[in-house]
Amino acid sequence: MTGKTILLFEAKSGSAPEGRRSGLGSDDIFAAGRDIVWSASGGVFAGSVDWNGKASITSFPHTECLVVVTGRLVLHSGGSTFHLTSGDSVVVGRGEDITAEAEKGTRWIFCATTAATSSTQGVVAIDRDVTLAPSPPPPAQFVEGDTPQCRLFRAFSDETAGFRAGVWATTPHIRLSRPHPVHELMYILEGQVDVTDGDGTLTSVGPGDAIFVGRGTVNRLSIQGNLKKIFVIAEG
């Protein structure tokens, strides 16, 4: 499968691409504001949600990682309350009992899967300032110049659904063109990266921007300065 890098949210303009207005099923409490920009077989979806009001559900029908980009979203679940503003992120596990409240002008980007899950993990916050542990760099044959120093914290992992999310950081480097191995949403916390697709299309992103790359998309990454991002990976 080939494709293009999708700019899911541009912080400077506050814009997100229009998608197909649809829920991820009949029980999707955010259906009225959900724009599906990308989807694939295996039940993987990405896009944005522009939603306000209050809604509750006793069993959330899918697994969704969201990053708030504007406004304020409050989630109540399992006796905990999560207050989310720009740059805050959580994963809502399938089967969770939640109540959501959002003020007018609230928008978030998302990557979600409707695949079966191995367990109910609740609502998991992704702390952008969490301590990261060393992680393997990209394969040497795809790195130009010095080997980067990479660090990782995996906040959420459901191997049955093939869905993972967390924070990843790296020192500057160039990752040569290759097909992207997974479906991935990236929300940039720090740094700058130029993404060049196989057809030469360039997408430059910095703090507050978000992109989505589908599995098989051929691209080249030029990472300028230290980079830190929230990542969401779906195998589909």
TrEMBL record:
InterPro entries: Cupin_2, RmlC-like_jellyroll, RmlC_Cupin_sf. The keyword Transport does not apply. Keywords: Plasmid. It comes from the Bacteria. Residues 179-221 form the Cupin type-2 domain. The keyword NADP does not apply. This is Cupin type-2 domain-containing protein.
